[in-house]
Amino acid sequence: MEVILSTLINGLSLGGIYAMIALGYTMVYGIAKMLNFAHGDIIMVGGYVIYVSMALGNPLLAILFAVVFCVLLGMTIEKIAYKPLRGASPLAVLITAIGVSYLLQSLAQIIFGSASKMVTVYEFGMVQFLGVNVQVSALVTLGITVVVMIALTLFVKCTRLGRAMIAVSEDKGAAQLMGINVNGIITVTFAIGSALAALAGLFYLLKAPSISNTLGAMPGIKAFTAAVIGGIGSIPGAMLGGILLGVVECISYKITAIAPYTDAIEFSILIIILLVRPTGFLGKKRREKV
């Protein structure tokens, strides 16, 4: 029973990380209608900023620097790489996003090398939770993820800027006619997504204190998978997909016979769900005007 509960808590924690990254994917897609495959590498950049900033000896300051740097980086990428492609085909935007991803990985390798760097942000230790010894960092990750999701949902639904985001996601042309600065809204969306990626980078370092230039590659793909499973464009869907994927991954790793096939199992779940429900669990069908 203890093993099951411990695995479930670890799965929820890992799912929280995937959900945090998936929130960035789903917001950018929901509003800008593009897949930013460089999003996973923002996690890696945030991790390296924390690695460098830890020289100051203050973890909170290092986290703040990482969030600010990633926000500025996300806004810069959007302005330089994506804004000129507003009217371009989705394929052109996709290729550009992949190019930006490899650019960030290559720059990180040039600056820091290809060897992994050890980063100890903070030692939380263990705690008794429901009769099981669990890492405090796992509970912190899950708690912050839930708070962020609730705050993001309230922000989108209850603030003027959030309602402007909804308007842009529904119809950019109509939103522009209503006086909404579409480009500004998209830039803000990239800023929020990048801040979430920086937090995800922090949670990864709390879980496994090492970083390399490919840190964000697989988590980025899995988070995108989570966003699609939950319903890309849906904030609660990103949370649901992330938690599901994290729990499945941790359970699979605990079963020796299927542990080597964990990634295949996760992507198989994506295929099955898309066959049964193409819009994901909480996704909505959209009618396209021709």
Structural class: mainly alpha
- Topology as H/E string? HHHHEEEHHHHEHHH
Number of domain modules: 1
Q: Would you report the number of β strands?
A: 4
Shape: globular
Strand order of the largest sheet: 1-4
Query: Which percent band covers the strand fraction?
Result: under 5%
Determine the N-to-C terminus distance: 56 Å
Low-confidence sequence ranges: none
Describe the structure in your own words:
This protein has one domain. Strand 2 (126-129) and strand 3 form a beta hairpin. By secondary structure, the chain is mainly alpha-helical. It starts with a helix and ends in a 14-residue tail after the last helix. The protein has a two-stranded antiparallel sheet. A two-stranded antiparallel ribbon has the order 2-3. The chain has helices at 2-32, 39-53, 59-82, 90-112, 136-158, 160-170, 172-177, 182-207, 217-230, 235-254, 262-276; strands at residues 117-118, 126-129, 132-135, 210-211. The chain contains 11 helices and 4 strands.
